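Q: I'm writing a short explainer about PhoX family phosphatase for a general audience and would like to include a description of its predicted shape. Could you first generate the structure from this sequence?
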Amino acid sequence: MTEISSASGYTDGDVDTNPTTAVSLEALADARYSRRQAIFGGAKATSLALMGTTMLAACGTDDTESTLVVSAGDNAATSSGRVVVLTGSVTAGNTSVSSSAWSQNSGPDVELIVSGLTATFIAPAVSEATDLTFGFGVQNADGEAASATTTIRVSPAVLGFSAVAHSLEDIAAVPAGYSVTVMTRLGDPLAASVPAYANDGTDTDFAHRIGDHGDALHFFGLSSAGARDDNSSTRGLMVQNHENLSTQYLHPNGPTNVSSGPRPEDEAKKEIEAHGVSVSEYADGGDRQWSYVADSSFNRRITPMTPMALRGPAAGSGMLVTAYSNDGTAGRGTINNCANGISGWATNLTCEENWAGYFRRDASDVALRTDRELTALARYGVSVRTGNYAWSTVASTDPMFTKWNATITGATATDDYRYEPNQYGWVVEIDPYDPTSTPRKRTALGRCGHEGAFVRIAEGQKVGVYMGDDSRREYLYKYVSNATWDAADADASDRLAIGDKYLDNGTLYVARFDADGTGKWLPLVFGSVPNRPAVGTAPEYVFADQADILINARLAADAVGATPMDRPEWTAGNPVTGEIYLTLTNNNASNRPLDGTDAANPRHYGDPKLSGSTSYGNPNGHIIRLREDGDSTDATTFAWDIYLFGADATDYPSDASVNVSGLTTDNDFSSPDGLWFSRESNPAGQINPVLWIETDDGAMTDRTNCMLLAALPGNVGDGGAVTLTNKDSTGATMQQATIAGAAATAANLRRFLVGPSECEITGIDMTPDGRTLFVGIQHPGERGDAATPTSHWPDSQAGSAAATVRPRSAIIAITKDDGGVIAL
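A: Of course. Here's the predicted structure. Afterward I'll give you a sentence or two in plain language.
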């Protein structure tokens, strides 16, 4: 922050921190000296004196400085989330000080941590410059007393770090003043009996180790006694998805026969068990010195073979019957878990994304299917002849391997796994506090390539769940519960039963974005959804019942005319405004040509690569946001705009049809993926919450590794209508109108982190106090192999690493060296 220099105040970023209606700091200083004169002047002089200094602002001259140190009786200014240290300095003459105390006199309440003559607090969230006053008093052995008042003016939150530059280094780079601790990594043991990870391909028992490709994560607080504690910032359970694999590093010399089989049983078992979800206990050893508890009783692995319960309207459908579940109400496992959602009753929602490719269907299966089945299988992409990793080619009758073969081989559905693909593509609810609980697949939320499931809880409203379907030209969905939120349910002990109440009975909608900046939620309800028209060789699809609509939600969304989007990924909600944000990662010309744009997916342009070639479409992606009419979760209409457009500022520094948001090299980005707002329990999530943007990019990788940005977004409608001039590879142009949000600036968007080589930044949460940020680093070195790894992270985080060290996905804990709130 800047020093206070004159009666006109000071500028902190572009925020006016000294409005003319407030008392000036000079007036406060005058009052302070008057008080001191009254204390120390007059007929009787004392031997006790407070030793102050002149007014202090902070130890720096811009908004990237953090800790504010102020002496008793002095006045100073800071902004929300910063650490403030109040110090008392006493001269006691010939007698000793018998007592001293700091106390708060006025302003928003803060937690004062008092140690001797010093008191520390975090500046609270404020919407305008606000004064906090504190009193300091001392008394000596003779009974003489002295006191002083200190005023701290707190201004609204600003981004308080210097932007991290582009980087191709093999480390997680963070701003000056921040530190990185590597937490759980691929293969780390989750039980006392499991040996340490050798990281040479020989390790086994991934049902009791941290899985691969860590994705979305969430920190669930624990009390010192081991009970749920939503306010705990020192102990908790880290729940993390494990989306996929870097098989080249899981085995001694890479995988065997992975493209066609037969696969060795031990390799396939390792790969299967390295998917799913992990629960591991994290603990702060003091002053945010984090580690994980390898033998915690809470630790758990949920794999593609963990028993699951199917709940909601589709449970019991004949289309969910398998050799394992003859009534279609049970299943085993979850796979390709990408983003997540957190319920209002402290459960984790994990989302099954690119699950379709894991299943094998032989050529003989085509003639055995009905036209309806073929249409549905094609719409979801269940058409691979071997399946990802060819697990079903293992020479075994163990269902761990045979269930990945969806080919019809028996007389009925109870004799094979023809409908096993229908058991995937759901949102799965997990109770992290109960390692013995059975996760529940919530069929009311629909089946697709679920990226995430942001849960919006608002007093007196229905529960809303916002979900992206992560494939090109797929849709944004919303689920609205029948039940109105009851705040008492937040603390219920049977958390999955509360999930039954809100997540099994409701209405699923899909979004249509109209060109005028409005949109409509289209209900996917049997009886109101028309038949899906014939497309190409696929005949008209007639829905049989509500279960059919939910199992084949993509077909139902087609039928009602939803808007195809540029890969809808994570959803996140602003905890203050209720506005919903959706990342649209990218698209290409083969999926959406020059004449295939629309207002919500408006760009078509070329992205030059280092080699000189150019790819066309929307290679850098964008972020759309919407505000429900009436701010109600059950609204059927909304307003929208495009909050940010990704772009390479070096390639397009000033082209207003590509770099629409005016990005610079300090805040440019490509392929936004993860999206999350800071928790509303700390200043970074209050008033004007910090939005975090993670990337999974292939377009700017010649310039920088993937990244994490921090933003202070505005609101829907803070920009205006624009018309873009799109261009294709032939040079043809076409105009497209859209609605853009306010331009990005150094004050409202900065790069906070750049990851190691060839990684994706994904998964993010913070402790409730906002002083530790957890971030996932996925698949570093993904283009290398066992003999020549192209990353050595996380070993490389500490410095140089041996050339043969294999990379591992891992979570990092990021802390501010002065203990302040992250990003502020």
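A: For your explainer, you could say: The domain at 11-155 is CATH 2.60.40.3010 (Immunoglobulin-like).
Q: Perfect, that's easy to follow.
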